[in-house]
Amino acid sequence: MSIDLKDIERRMDGALATLKTEFAGLRTGRASSSLLEPIMVEAYNQQMPMPQVGTISVPDSRMLSVQVWDKGLVGSVEKAIREAGLGLNPVVDGQTVRVPMPALNEERREELAKVASKYTEQARVAVRNVRRDGMEYLKKAEKDKEISQDEQKAHAADVQKLTDDKIAAIDALLANKEGEIRQV
Length: 184
Prior knowledge:
alpha+beta; 4-stranded antiparallel sheet; 4 helices
């Protein structure tokens, strides 16, 4: 029995895909519905992603709007956007929450860079967790005499190389995003 490196790689790629999605939401001054999608809203005594409580649209390049389906959740949506750490100030207009995109001044660029760093660290942690799971599986397999110590070390080296490659890809995504943020 050997470790399934394809499964480990697939799980690590999932962390990368999530990071790319989160970065897509970090629009540098332009409105993008993906900016609000990961925000969790307190609704019906549980946390729900924004797209499950309303329709997110982009009426123009400097404005987002959320058409909230349940009138009782308008305040929760506004609060979630305000507290998301994105530096946005939503305005309630009936059952619609309008979110003007602030101009990208130096302070806003720094905020976006910090958010990008936070997303990157979450992705690194996710990759390291997958690595830890793989290493624990290998140690258990060796202890249970399913694989030899040499096989365990060889597979552990493969898992570590995969981890290093994914972390490097994550760091490259961050460097690219930070350049995009500072460039505009």
